[in-house]
Amino acid sequence: MATSQSLSNGDDHESSSLFCESWRFSVEANNAGNWSAVPDRCLEFVKDYMTGDRYKSDFGLTAKNTLEFAKSVDIAEDGKDAWIFDVDETLISFLPYYESHGFGKTDQKEFVKWGLRNKLPALQASLSLYKEIHQLGFKIFLLTGRPEWFRNFTTTNLAEAGYSDWERLILRQPSDENKKAIDYKPEKRKQLLDEGYRIIGNVGDQWSDLMGYPIAQRSFKYPNLMYYVA
């Protein structure tokens, strides 16, 4: 009981560090549910994690595991083996925004405006993975929750970050505007199945990128402690 109390109410550095490690695990295991902001006591923890070696290591190992699976696939000659990537926090990153604005709750309008004014950098481990996946012969589909009017900006940003040769960039159409990601993304995957594609792999930073029918043969989740998308 004393330990439980210290985790929920303790203010000392040690108990906060332990709580934040547990919160991180809860987020990545999808146990935290629809969380809206980093707990105040964990802001410094998240900053240290996202800007330090731990995030790069976790991200890099996930990319390594993903590539190991991709290399094990016997790719068919019909060109229908598909691999899906999310975009934000999967291929390119808003981390510079959070570094300059803090890791607390964000102003969504300011967040979008910043994204339109600035070029988001590539996540290097994912860029290397992307190129390897393409070289193996998979057809790459980029499935993002960004709206259609972001297309030109997104295409330019991705190209400048080093990405190329995707089969299709799928963005939200007006009819998708009010759909949650957990509903929107499976619908788009189903459309690919209906076109005859086999979804072999799927990579994203949100559980809503990966869950829902149809799912890929293997799904891989990158870490993200900055925000949650339902």
Automatic annotation (TrEMBL):
The keyword Ribosomal protein is annotated on this UniProt entry: no
Molecular-function annotations in GO: acid phosphatase activity
CDD domains in the record: HAD_VSP (cd07535)
Keyword Nuclease: no
Gene3D superfamilies listed in its UniProt record: HAD superfamily/HAD-like
Alphabetized InterPro entries for the sequence: Acid_phosphat_B-like, Acid_phosphatase_pln, APS1/VSP, HAD-like_sf, HAD_sf
Keywords tagged on the record: Glycoprotein, Signal
Similarity field: Belongs to the APS1/VSP family.
NCBIfam families: plant-AP (TIGR01675)
Protein name per the record: Acid phosphatase 1
Annotated organism of origin: Chenopodium quinoa (Quinoa)
